[in-house]
Amino acid sequence: MTLREADRVERELVAIVGEANVLRPAPEAYAIDDRRPSLVVFPETSEEIAAVLRLAHARELAVVPMGSGRRLSFGNLLERVDILLSTRRMTRILEYEPADLTASVEAGCTLMAFNRVALPHRQWLPFDPPDADRATLGGIAAVDDFGPLRHGYGRPRDAVIGLEVVQADGTRIRAGGRVVKNVTGYDLNKLFVGSFGTLGVLVRVNFKLRPYPEAEATTLFFDSEWERLESGARQILQSELLPAALMLVNEEAMSALLPDHPRKALLARFLETAPAVVYQMERAKALARSLSLELVELKDEASRSIWEKLGRLHRLLPTDLRLRLSVLPAHTVEALCAGERALDETLARLHILAQPGTGIVHIGGELTSAEERTLSSVVQAIHHLRRTWAAHRGRVIVEHAPPEIKRRVDVWGDVGASLPLMRALKHAFDPKRILSPGRFVAGL
Amino acid sequence: MTLREADRVERELVAIVGEANVLRPAPEAYAIDDRRPSLVVFPETSEEIAAVLRLAHARELAVVPMGSGRRLSFGNLLERVDILLSTRRMTRILEYEPADLTASVEAGCTLMAFNRVALPHRQWLPFDPPDADRATLGGIAAVDDFGPLRHGYGRPRDAVIGLEVVQADGTRIRAGGRVVKNVTGYDLNKLFVGSFGTLGVLVRVNFKLRPYPEAEATTLFFDSEWERLESGARQILQSELLPAALMLVNEEAMSALLPDHPRKALLARFLETAPAVVYQMERAKALARSLSLELVELKDEASRSIWEKLGRLHRLLPTDLRLRLSVLPAHTVEALCAGERALDETLARLHILAQPGTGIVHIGGELTSAEERTLSSVVQAIHHLRRTWAAHRGRVIVEHAPPEIKRRVDVWGDVGASLPLMRALKHAFDPKRILSPGRFVAGL
Description:
The structure is a homodimer. The first copy, chain A, is an alpha+beta fold. Chain A has 16 helices and 19 strands.
């Protein structure tokens, strides 16, 4: 943008949202990877968002929607970013009917704020993505962002029943419903979830809720061998035990979570009625005995707290790089070991979280140096993992990396034969490529 | 198609699938509404389907995919139909891992054939659309076709985890996965489900299965007033009773289902462990007493049988017209009465099935005459119902009607602001409009 154009755009944005709600230049804190947006704007209503997008569309300015900003650098490097559009002022709970187990919220409403309102009704949205303490519900839906509770509750995508979206040209549409899913036409709803702000700006999200559990507990199994923890996990999965989360955690991560127990561990979280939690703990104890695994039990607040810490792990441990491998559940430990081997030399304080029930493995750590050699061996490791796992229906996504690495590797990997269709979709929804251009698969 | 062109197309189709698998002209039984396709083709593999579509794409011939054909006239009148593409020969179960609770089948595999294989493992796909005895799984997915079990098990859409699709130009793509949902990119999978063959030809469908219940029973509550049956339904919905299906049935439909009981009824189907079924029946009995409702109980085979009959109701009763109203669940009985009033004069043997748990109301019957006056008053009734219910987030879909009515009314109703987006989607997936052109919302 030229200086004169920026002046004009700033005046127009001020006319839409008021002077107090436009920042120019964007403060350093709003940088995405190594790019600074020209302007940051804080609209208060979906009408204002529509007006901002009409303006951007007319002038072909790139707009990046943002919730809390915690996942802004998830994705390929942006081609350009003119306007950062924050939903910080759109925090209202629009409808909440405890009897229906449904709610409709503005995109900027945080998960914590919503759950605080739902908990007195013994209901909640069972999402626990990284930094869940700050996450907005619009951001969670846009990224389809999940954490350990995915094991028992599914992804946010499964809980989104409807959306209000502002399209790239400023048109406001509804997709899906508020209560029942009696949509006519194509099911657009799920298409926006997990599209990382590349198809439209989510302004309102309708969720179905879950009953909040009466009690909770976490059992931690310790061992020095992954194989024995894995067989523990497999036995749990085949038993009547129904953990809400099941996670393999390596020594480095455990030392940050429970400094007294810096060992490999399997964590199982139970969220149930009080008697069911007691029963499951007993069963877990018997399992530990039969496998000669060391066992620690955490109840209620202590249980909640360790999972919260796990969601903040990348703030407890230095994390320059974070990969997500997704493989068939039976291959979880194999993938975890392969990832560890591939990155062992380039990552320090390498921490691993792996869900044996879903086949999701997260590996993060601190780059041992910023030198060319280190960077290129990380890139090689990513390519190597992708090649190895492609044959076993596995995928490797780079969830977080410095721009120098993102410049050399598509963070999403190959999407195969459906790429032309995805390209056609992007073109149908956003022909001028103004929404988060470059961020998504193959630089869509 | 000119005669010469038809000759050439026939030869090319024969070269792809063999002489025995091309019909020309299409027999009367393959007519869709009042249109007869020029050719019917029966491919055996997805490669053959791809070849048929490449041919059709090059020549801009309209292709309509077909499973059992039971839902072929669901939708607006086709603009044109050159080739009817039947999946009748694609009936294989490709993968079925009982331990994973997932299966992958060819589109032409029937629901019954699959469930026959799954039942010895005590698993099933809990779908019960109309004519479930003939339905193919590809057809069920393409139409997102549901029946009473939607109440307890959700729609087929919720159970589809992945697809293989042949696009309009013959490209084969996969959407979603086979086991876990670790897709990268836009979630295309759900877009094809319920798209009525207008975005691509489903050739392979991956489902997640459910455990098959140990026992079953149905309680029938009878009364002369909808209001009392409705309050019974509401009490069931608010109790710990967990019916898999809950259905209000009018006198006409009941007289076809159980000739001894031609009264208004509320049917609740329980599918559970044996003790849970007994418990729920007891609770249902107590409920009937407290509301002074007459009660009949059907167990096991008798229970199964009444729901099967209900799925064949339109074969038991003459059905020229069938509407689906979907409203907020609390408005079910109001919608049912409004529909009855609106169609009372033009429909004989008017039968009503309504799900008070999901707000779906089906009304069907026999047109009292084929005269202009009757037809135009049916069209007026549809418009009237749409106008009345639009304000209450209700929708009216014409599931079945003679061509004379379809010529005057869009069977899908208004889809609102998302229409341009749906149009753009159709254009992105099928720019030449060769797949079931005209059938979908707004004649897409």
